[in-house]
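Key result, reporting period 2: structure in, sequence out.
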């Protein structure tokens, strides 16, 4: 197993170079836009308090969290394929992608 810790958003990538499909990525939980009621990143009108929430805001939150998951998956894939993900330029790219997701979703 190999673990790479990045200096942005508490991102930590763990993978096995002999079994590249079994990797994982963790990050600072507040990187996600959490449900204000149950604090889950995956809540889509599912908790008891959320049914009355503004639909557009909830959809936007859900889409943003999906984008974050996609970006994290891409980071894992890049690490497994041998790209140096712990470089300042790569980490700046992560930050830019996350900011763009926040501004566009
Ligand atoms: Zn909720």
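The corresponding designed sequence is given below.
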């Amino acid at each position: 197993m190999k673990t790479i810790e990045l200096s942005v958003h508490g991102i930590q990538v763990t993978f096995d170079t002999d079994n590249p499909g079994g990797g994982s990525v963790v990050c600072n939980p507040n990187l996600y836009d959490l449900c204000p009621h149950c604090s889950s990143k995956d809540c889509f009108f599912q908790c008891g308090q959320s049914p009355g929430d503004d639909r557009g805001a909830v959809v936007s939150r859900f889409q943003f969290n999906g984008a974050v998951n996609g970006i994290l998956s891409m980071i894992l894939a890049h690490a497994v394929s041998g790209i140096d993900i712990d470089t300042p330029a790569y980490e700046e790219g992560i930050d830019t992608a996350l900011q763009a997701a926040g501004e566009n979703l």
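The mean pLDDT is 93. The chain is about 40% helix and 15% strand. This case is discussed further under Risks and Mitigation.
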